[in-house]
Amino acid sequence: MSSFNNKVAIVTGAGVGIGYEIARQLCDEGAKVILNDIEENLASEAAAKIGTGCVALAGDSSDIDFIRKMVDTAVSTFGKLDIAIANSGITLFGDFLEYPPESFYRVMNVNLGGSFFLAQLAAKQMIKQSSGGSILLTSSVTGHQAHKQLAAYSMTKAALEMLAKNLVIELSQHRITVNAIAPGATLTERTLDDPNYQTVWSQITPMGRPATTTDIADAALFLVSDKAKHITGQSLIIDGGWTSISPSPF
């Protein structure tokens, strides 16, 4: 099969959307996947749709004890951990001057804390195995271009890209790659709740359409594959050219 045959991965925030498609493609290419979502029904339904090789594990991906449980479950169920994809994140819009502390710290805890500690605990397991591995962080175009009412969220996404770069110093000697993807406008269950989303982003995206989850997952799989063993510390923007011209959707 493919280079993912017998690989074991954790994908957080994978009940729907980009995370689900990444998990689905990994399993389709021969990997075993621990599929996480904070909502138990979403995790269970997603894993059932994907089928053999996919195990649902519902819980809060920002909680250090649960992160440890995900790593332990991967090892106890499949014997090892090769790939960790920190895809989980939340977006809490709000005007900067009125942004409440509880929203700020929730965004920081989920987007940064969850990603940081999944990378940390996954790396420790990979080092113990002495077989290398791949860590992927999910950033965003908002880490590159300003978006209205997304000051806190954008901070986290820019920070994740710096984390990927910094971990080159820490993890390269263990043959662990760390990269980030930065999706732009993407058609998911959440964004399609807005009836104008596809029309607006099709008009302002140079390629004439927003991304599909397949577009994003294709790039993610490349970065965690054996074909990208010499790529680390990089952030790949997947936005149909939007950040080159950056027109506002508002």
Q: Quick recap of the structure?
A:
The protein is built from 8 helices and 9 strands. By secondary structure, the protein is of the alpha/beta class.
Secondary-structure map:
Layout: E1 8-11, H1 17-28, E2 32-37, H2 40-50, E3 54-58, H3 64-78, E4 83-86, H4 101-129, E5 133-138, H5 151-171, E6 176-183, E7 186-187, H6 197-204, E8 211-212, H7 213-223, E9 235-238, H8 242-245
Parallel strand pairs: 1-2, 1-4, 2-3, 4-5, 5-6, 6-9, 7-8
| N/C terminus separation | 45 Å
Give me the count of strands. Answer: 9
Query: Low-confidence runs (pLDDT<50, min 5 residues)?
Result: none
Tally of individual domains = 1
Task: Quickly give the CATH architecture.
Answer: 3-Layer(aba) Sandwich
Our estimate of the beta-strand percent is: 15-25%
Percent of residues in helices comes to: 40-55%
| Name of the level-1 CATH class | Alpha Beta
**CATH topology assignment:** Rossmann fold
Could you state the CATH homologous superfamily?
NAD(P)-binding Rossmann-like Domain
Order of helices and strands: EHEHEHEHEHEEHEHEH
Structural class estimated from helices and strands: alpha/beta
Kindly state the mean pLDDT as a whole number? Answer: 96
Strand order of the largest sheet: 3-2-1-4-5-6-9
Largest sheet: 7 strands, parallel
What would you report as the Rg, rounded to the nearest angstrom?
A: 17 Å
Count helical runs.
8
Give the overall shape, derived from the CA principal axes: globular
